[in-house]
Amino acid sequence: MYTRKEKFIKQLTALVTVTLGGSTTFAGLCIWNGNENFYRDYVIPFTRRLDPETSHGLAVFAMKHCLIKKQLKPDAESLSTRLWDINFSNPVGLAAGFDKQAEAMQGLHRTGFGFVEIGSVTPKPQEGNPNPRVFRLEEDNAIINRYGFNSEGHEAVFHRVRQEKEKQERAIIGVNLGKNKVSAMEDVRDYVTGVEKFGAIADYLVINISSPNTPGLRGLQQKAELENLIACVLEARNKLGTANLPPLLVKIAPDLSEAEKKDVASVILKEKCRVDGIIVCNTTTSRPSDLKSQCKDEIGGLSGQPLKDISTRCIRDFYRLTNGQIPIIGVGGISSGQDAYEKILAGASLVQLYTSFALQGPPVVRRIKRELDEILRSNGYQNVAEAIGKSSQGN
How does it sit in the bilayer (predicted)? Predict the structure, then answer.
């Protein structure tokens, strides 16, 4: 027989065990199911107590181990689109910079992204810039990063991409190629090597010449340098011994002058430099005057809400300068279906998220798709492709 005190302790222990176990189970289910309110009220506030790079690492870990329930409901028919002979179930992808080492492609696919761009990946492993190199600007819904192409190198990333490609249900994978910091900036071999390495297994390839965190890299956007780079990389792509050549895209900066934009457009419209698409745009080195965060003056590329309108204007400019002939992936400050819709109206065929996914978590992907579907239908569009460039036509 238990004494009264022993009985009370036993009951209290059982109550605590059940309560903690129940709370843990409830939290786990909310995370697994991607409950938007739970992420907003509990998960995100917790992760913001952590160092930004630690938080980034945890997010990659969660996606790597598929710690979120697969989206079971098919995407709305209005969101399906076809580009480069690839069928996308929806136009909302993940931008390069999140899954740098190609560790989390399957989890990101399960989360609901229409495609996943990994990297940037450099030929040889490199550490990138020293810490700290990521900063949250919470008051501005933004991030500044100066990672500097931290990469495990072609070989490690290649094996992970190949494993993902062999899966029956897999992500559409873009491989974003960067340069090693020790390579001469005018030397195009890092990009040629990347094309030769990943050309047979990537769904599309991206030449990243617009990161602000590798000294001299953006100089490759100058007319003569860009023409030489694209011609060499396209030649390497066209020599690949594969049945289907991967589309080749170039990622550009938002900080180009009007003259520089015209130069880029004139190059990519030349037959020998005719890329299959452009990604508009990378992070910005500019700092809008209305930024509030104490981290606003940190060196690096700014992404998120402050980039939204800059990016949309840049998309509209390139859609106009190329007469809509070069497909655009629009990225920069997308955190709602309306944001995505504005990018598409400006001329984007596909869009990408980065900062909103980092700051709001996986539920933002499904919410943006849901909102975009509703906006398209309310504006009389049967399919997202019908809306591409509508606000830029005739301008």
Answer: Single-pass membrane protein
Contacts for 22-30 with beta carbons within 8 Å, 24 or more apart? none
Residues contacting 132, CB < 8 A, separation 6+: 51, 52, 53
Instruction: Give 88's strand partners.
Output: 81
Higher pLDDT, 14 or 67: 67
CA distance 246 to 148: 26
Q: What confidence score (pLDDT) does residue 229 get?
A: 97
DSSP 254: T
- Position 201, amino acid: I
Distance of CA 149 to the CA centre of its chain: 15
Q: What percent of the chain has pLDDT over 90?
A: 83
Give the whole-angstrom CA distance, residue 388 versus residue 328.
Answer: 10
378 annotated active-site: no
Q: What dihedral do alpha carbons 6, 8, 10, 11 form, nearest 10°?
A: 160
Spatial CA neighbour of 80 closest among 362, 391, 389, 385: 385
Q: Mind listing the pLDDT tens digit for each residue in 365-385? A: 999 999 999 999 999 999 999
CB atoms within 10 A of CB 18: 10
Q: Alpha-carbon dihedral of residues 88, 76, 92, 165, nearest 10 degrees?
A: -40
Q: What is the pTM of this model?
A: 0.92
329's enclosing H/E stretch is strand 328-331
**All structural domains of the chain with their residue ranges:** 71-387
Q: Where are the beta strands (DSSP E) in 235-288?
A: 248-252, 277-280
Q: Is the pLDDT of residue 187 over 50?
A: yes
| Closest of 307, 229, 239 to residue 275, by C-alpha | 229
Annotated active-site residue in 89, 151, 211, 349 = 211
User: Can you tell me the distance from the alpha carbon of 151 to that of 100, in angstroms, rounded to the nearest whole number?
Assistant: 7
In whole angstroms, what is the distance from residue 129 CA to residue 361 CA?
A: 25
* C-alpha to C-alpha distance for 37 and 27, rounded to whole angstroms: 12
d(C-alpha 360, C-alpha 380), whole Å: 30
The reported pLDDT for the residue numbered 347 is: 98
Which tokens go with 243? 């049945």
Q: Which of 352, 332, 342 is nearest to 376 (CA)?
A: 342
List pLDDT tens digits, range 228-253: 999 999 999 999 989 899 999 999 99
